[in-house]
Amino acid sequence: MLVKEGEEVGEGEEERVMSVGGGCAYGCSNKMEAEYKRRHHKHETAENQCTSVVVKHIKAPVPLVWSLVRRFDQPQKYKPFISRCVVRGDLTIGSVREVNVKSGLPATTSTERLEFLDDNEHILSMRIVGGDHRLKNYYSVITLHPEVIDGRPSTLVIESFVVDIPEGNTKDETCYFVEALIKCNLKSLSEVSERLAIQDRTEPIDPA
To answer: Which of 4, 66, 70, 190 could form a disulfide with 58 if both were Cys (CB 3.0 to 4.6 A apart)?
Structure first.
């Protein structure tokens, strides 16, 4: 099983319906979301794979949110289940990181490769290439898009994935498990970003 009976990864949360400024109503925003998903988050899947998309609205500007997301070498800045990360060599496309996972999940390590990083379009994709878990052939894409919430510069975050369905699990079980992880990560990303936005502080883009 991906999740043990009675074990919770995190609470799934419904997205709040917010008014989007700049002359664009929420329905218009939904059309833009659909276009972003079509452009960046369409995955071809085999019969034994599943795919899904998670969306999050964050009350912080894109440059601030991106300064956290792009740090492939420091995912623990906002991912609550990661305790340690070590990157082999320089941080470039193709770089591999070794991640230690906190207790409470059915894994302790994960080996992940940076597949794509675009600082202009705010796109990052990664692939899991090893580790003691059951997320085989896992590939994800996260994209950031500017929007306006309550009259302030904000960010629409879209993250999608494709992964093999482990033997003994159903498609729905696999998608639910991965979606729960992503929702927890994006909830934490929102909290960290909005806290930094209140402090008017953006993490440096260039790695320290």
So the answer is: 190
